[in-house]
């Protein structure tokens, strides 16, 4: 028996409202129907049911969307996905023969609940505050309209595009083989992602390890002989969350941010867009390096431009010029097809192995079959592809697993020598003169391009041309690293100065706005901030030019496994202090408070003297705090994320304080805060550190073993106290970065912190890493206080850090 799938497609959430709705406003009864702009609203106002029109489409659908707490219309369920209506005034949703039925303009039923009922006259449809639409056989019945014990798995199926809710190519389902794992399929056939089996002890899916770091959702999986299903609920009842099978082919968890009035991406799988099978369609190539993800192969063009504009790439690309063999001409009457060399690609699936002893023999085999569209010849032998090429991915130049594909194109797609027949002598002489002029012009242009001459903008900030940076980085050949906002490459300017060039992704600003924002950031100078030297803005190309940091990022040093290369305690302390000074400058010394929003070891760079420099501090301002790319990477970002990011309250500089505190714990331990031990259990270091501090145990037991106890106990205790205060659940209890600097400098002393509730929960159950976002009402009301230790003051001064 196939397991029954139950997913929390809508939400599990509860609100408290003073309902102003009249009795029955959430109900469709035998004497009440819906047409036109009429709707029914759940009792608490959470959800609305009625006709809606997605985007610029002229089609109308019956659906359920969020109510008065979400200002952006977000549809969570659609009845007539495949059969839209045009005239809602003539269409009608009503009770008919004991079912809820949608009739179109011609009064033809196009959707029904298809439930048998013995008392059709008393059946009503009720929209519940949980988002469920329920058929009840009488006013007091609670019988749902879906049979929960079927022999078929229920699927989450993506929309075709943002304006068409018709079933798309991507679907999520529980494994019909009964393995308690979820699968994502392309076209219901090709599996390209799995969650791994459910681990009841750890309460996670084995291939989704980030579930261990969750502090928003409570996960549950049920399985017996009749049914299997997965649900989630929210620890914070005020959080609005949704789980969707997106048109991108990724499953996504989003939460509503009331402050910015937008949906925030919390989690998605697969993490990389190009891991979605055939995302770019036939003869489309997917590239992770930058936007857009999808491009047509050379010799092909978009089959449907309008669909691509709606992020629907499923139709893929088609040939610009037909192949010679398709034109049904012999080789004597036309030029034979040729092959375009495409290096560094991930080869498509479904290749056919062919016996061939050389690359020329492999090519000849493909040419003899008009249906052969490409071939590859390497150490794995000769392989050819028949028909469409699907799931082709362009890899980075330094990718170790890149292969070379030979793509079949019409001969006219390649440049050819000119036909000189009939050219008179005078024309030939004129052509020679023209060629000489073009050559001279080309040499002048080449010499001009090889000399980088950026223009000064607002003083010391430089505006580079794209070709300038392309030349400086040797066509972006030496990659230093990358993250959610883009990739960084090493470059050298003509004056021999070394630079780091960051190619930005997901930047939507226009030229003028981008220059204005960058110019503002370029004026910010501090010894503990990476200096922005310049920028490039040409169309969709947006790049930032920084000073090069020879010692790279902090994570490469902090988590180094070789004892001889471990950072000394003195160095760690100075890096922590320098980082705090840089953040304090951003928060308190700039004209406008700048919130970094992504503090982690990867964003702390080290110069030649191991002086810390906060990097990427302006990206939140440039990108508008769109963290959809950052949160989908597993580079530690979510381990440093403050609870208020997900709960939807306005984010302040205290979010950076939280991230900084989480990073301080790693300064002490020399390891990531959350890691799996040999016994398979997750150890969360901040919980251990907080426990040691409050129980007055030996603080040196917390120190990185590679340091052999070589650290002043006073400094170690000071950093642990600061870290515990920084990660308090209630942001008002966290210190400012200015106060953190004073504490680390020894100017102020700080009292012993309480254990945050989130860490208390972790201490009670070390097998599960679960955070709470709400403040505990019975938690100690203790607030941090600090005492001046400066020798120049006659009296000690005590003050509260809480705001």
From TrEMBL:
<feature type="transmembrane region" description="Helical">
    <location>
        <begin position="423"/>
        <end position="444"/>
    </location>
</feature>
<keyword id="KW-0723">Serine/threonine-protein kinase</keyword>
<dbReference type="InterPro" id="IPR008271">
    <property type="entry name" value="Ser/Thr_kinase_AS"/>
</dbReference>
<keyword id="KW-0472">Membrane</keyword>
<keyword id="KW-0812">Transmembrane</keyword>
<keyword id="KW-1133">Transmembrane helix</keyword>
<keyword id="KW-0430">Lectin</keyword>
<feature type="binding site">
    <location>
        <position position="502"/>
    </location>
    <ligand>
        <name>ATP</name>
    </ligand>
</feature>
<dbReference type="InterPro" id="IPR024171">
    <property type="entry name" value="SRK-like_kinase"/>
</dbReference>
<dbReference type="Pfam" id="PF01453">
    <property type="entry name" value="B_lectin"/>
</dbReference>
<keyword id="KW-1003">Cell membrane</keyword>
<keyword id="KW-0675">Receptor</keyword>
<comment type="similarity">
    <text>Belongs to the protein kinase superfamily. Ser/Thr protein kinase family.</text>
</comment>
<feature type="signal peptide">
    <location>
        <begin position="1"/>
        <end position="24"/>
    </location>
</feature>
<feature type="domain" description="Bulb-type lectin">
    <location>
        <begin position="25"/>
        <end position="148"/>
    </location>
</feature>
<dbReference type="GO" id="GO:0005886">
    <property type="term" value="C:plasma membrane"/>
</dbReference>
<keyword id="KW-0418">Kinase</keyword>
<feature type="domain" description="Protein kinase">
    <location>
        <begin position="474"/>
        <end position="748"/>
    </location>
</feature>
<keyword id="KW-0325">Glycoprotein</keyword>
<feature type="compositionally biased region" description="Low complexity">
    <location>
        <begin position="775"/>
        <end position="803"/>
    </location>
</feature>
<dbReference type="GO" id="GO:0004674">
    <property type="term" value="F:protein serine/threonine kinase activity"/>
</dbReference>
<dbReference type="InterPro" id="IPR001480">
    <property type="entry name" value="Bulb-type_lectin_dom"/>
</dbReference>
<dbReference type="InterPro" id="IPR011009">
    <property type="entry name" value="Kinase-like_dom_sf"/>
</dbReference>
<feature type="domain" description="Apple">
    <location>
        <begin position="325"/>
        <end position="410"/>
    </location>
</feature>
<keyword id="KW-0597">Phosphoprotein</keyword>
<dbReference type="InterPro" id="IPR000858">
    <property type="entry name" value="S_locus_glycoprot_dom"/>
</dbReference>
<dbReference type="Pfam" id="PF00954">
    <property type="entry name" value="S_locus_glycop"/>
</dbReference>
<keyword id="KW-1015">Disulfide bond</keyword>
<keyword id="KW-0547">Nucleotide-binding</keyword>
<dbReference type="GO" id="GO:0030246">
    <property type="term" value="F:carbohydrate binding"/>
</dbReference>
<keyword id="KW-0732">Signal</keyword>
<dbReference type="InterPro" id="IPR017441">
    <property type="entry name" value="Protein_kinase_ATP_BS"/>
</dbReference>
<dbReference type="InterPro" id="IPR003609">
    <property type="entry name" value="Pan_app"/>
</dbReference>
<dbReference type="InterPro" id="IPR000719">
    <property type="entry name" value="Prot_kinase_dom"/>
</dbReference>
<keyword id="KW-0067">ATP-binding</keyword>
<dbReference type="Pfam" id="PF08276">
    <property type="entry name" value="PAN_2"/>
</dbReference>
<feature type="region of interest" description="Disordered">
    <location>
        <begin position="773"/>
        <end position="803"/>
    </location>
</feature>
<dbReference type="GO" id="GO:0005524">
    <property type="term" value="F:ATP binding"/>
</dbReference>
<dbReference type="GO" id="GO:0048544">
    <property type="term" value="P:recognition of pollen"/>
</dbReference>
<dbReference type="InterPro" id="IPR036426">
    <property type="entry name" value="Bulb-type_lectin_dom_sf"/>
</dbReference>
<protein>
    <recommendedName>
        <fullName>Receptor-like serine/threonine-protein kinase</fullName>
        <ecNumber>2.7.11.1</ecNumber>
    </recommendedName>
</protein>
<keyword id="KW-0808">Transferase</keyword>
């Amino acid at each position: 028996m196939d397991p029954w799938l139950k997913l929390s497609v809508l939400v599990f959430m509860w609100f408290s409202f003073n309902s102003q709705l009249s009795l029955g406003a959430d109900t469709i009864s035998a004497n009440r129907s819906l047409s036109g702009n009429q709707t029914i609203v759940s009792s608490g106002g959470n959800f609305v049911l009625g006709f809606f029109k997605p985007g610029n489409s002229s089609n109308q659908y019956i659906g359920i969307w969020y109510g008065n707490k979400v200002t952006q219309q977000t549809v969570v369920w659609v009845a007539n996905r495949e059969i839209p209506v045009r005239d809602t005034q003539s269409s009608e949703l009503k009770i008919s023969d004991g079912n809820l039925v949608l009739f179109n303009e011609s009064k033809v039923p196009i959707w029904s609940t298809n439930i048998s009922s013995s008392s059709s006259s008393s059946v009503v449809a009720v929209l519940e505050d949980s988002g469920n639409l329920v058929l009840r056989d009488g006013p007091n019945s609670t019988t749902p309209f879906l049979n929960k014990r079927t022999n078929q798995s229920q699927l989450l199926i993506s929309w075709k595009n943002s304006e068409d809710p018709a079933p798309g190519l991507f679907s999520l389902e529980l494994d019909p083989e009964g393995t308690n794992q979820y699968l994502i399929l392309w076209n219901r056939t090709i599996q390209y992602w799995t969650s791994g089996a459910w681990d009841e002890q750890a309460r996670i899916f084995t291939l989704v390890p980030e579930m261990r770091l969750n502090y928003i959702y409570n996960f549950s999986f049920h399985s017996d002989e009749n049914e299997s299903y997965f649900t989630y609920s929210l620890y914070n009842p005020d959080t609005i969350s949704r789980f969707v099978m997106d048109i991108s082919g990724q499953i996504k968890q989003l939460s509503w941010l009331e402050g910015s009035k937008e949906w925030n991406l919390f989690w998605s799988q697969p993490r990389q867009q190009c891991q979605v099978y055939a995302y770019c369609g036939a003869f489309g190539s997917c590239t992770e390096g930058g936007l857009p993800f999808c491009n047509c192969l050379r010799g092909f063009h978009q089959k449907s431009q309008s669909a691509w504009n709606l992020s629907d790439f499923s139709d893929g690309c088609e040939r610009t010029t037909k192949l010679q063999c398709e034109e049904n001409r012999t080789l004597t009457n036309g030029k034979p097809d040729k092959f375009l060399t495409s290096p560094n690609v991930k080869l498509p699936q479904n290749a056919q192995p062919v016996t061939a002893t050389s690359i020329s023999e492999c090519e000849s085999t493909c040419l003899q079959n008009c249906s052969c569209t490409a071939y590859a010849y390497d150490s794995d032998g000769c392989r050819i592809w028949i028909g469409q090429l699907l799931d082709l991915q362009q890899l980075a130049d330094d990718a170790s697993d890149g292969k070379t594909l030979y793509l079949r194109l019409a001969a006219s797609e390649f440049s050819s020598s000119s036909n000189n027949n009939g050219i008179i002598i005078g024309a030939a002489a004129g052509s020679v003169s023209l060629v000489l002029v073009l050559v001279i012009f080309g040499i002048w242009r080449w010499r001009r391009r090889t000399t980088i001459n950026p223009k000064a903008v607002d003083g010391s900030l430089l505006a580079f041309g794209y070709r300038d940076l392309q030349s400086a980085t040797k066509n972006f050949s030496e990659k230093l690293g990358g993250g959610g906002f883009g990739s960084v490459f090493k470059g050298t300017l003509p004056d021999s100065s070394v630079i780091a060039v960051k190619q930005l992704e997901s930047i939507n600003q226009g030229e003028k706005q981008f220059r204005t924002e960058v110019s503002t950031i370029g004026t910010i100078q501090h010894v503990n901030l990476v200096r922005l030297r310049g920028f490039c803005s040409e169309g969709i190309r947006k790049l930032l030019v920084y000073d090069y940091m020879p010692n790279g990022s902090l994570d490469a040093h902090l988590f180094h496994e070789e004892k001889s290369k471990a950072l000394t305690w003195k160095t760690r302390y100075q890096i922590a202090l320098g980082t705090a000074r840089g953040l304090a400058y951003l928060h308190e010394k700039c004209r406008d408070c700048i919130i970094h929003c992504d503090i982690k070891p990867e964003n702390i760079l080290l110069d030649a003297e191991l002086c810390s420099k906060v990097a990427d501090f302006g990206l939140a301002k440039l990108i508008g705090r769109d963290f959809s790319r950052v949160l989908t990477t597993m580079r530690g970002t979510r381990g440093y994320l403050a609870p208020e990011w997900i709960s939807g309250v306005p984010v302040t500089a205290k979010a950076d304080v939280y991230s900084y505190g989480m990073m301080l714990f790693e300064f002490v331990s020399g390891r990531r805060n959350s890691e799996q031990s040999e016994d398979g259990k997750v150890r969360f270091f901040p919980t251990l550190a907080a426990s040691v501090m409050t129980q007055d145990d030996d603080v040196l037991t917390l120190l990185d073993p590679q340091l052999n106890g070589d650290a002043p106990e006073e400094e170690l205790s000071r950093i642990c106290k600061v870290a515990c205060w920084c990660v308090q659940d209630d942001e008002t209890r966290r210190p400012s970065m200015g106060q953190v600097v004073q504490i680390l400098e020894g100017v102020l002393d700080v009292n012993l912190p309480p254990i945050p509730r989130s860490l208390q929960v972790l201490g009670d159950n070390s097998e599960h890493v679960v955070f709470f976002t709400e403040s505990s009402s019975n938690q100690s009301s203790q607030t941090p206080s600090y005492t001046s230790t400066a020798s120049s003051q006659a009296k000690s001064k005590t003050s509260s850090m809480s705001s």
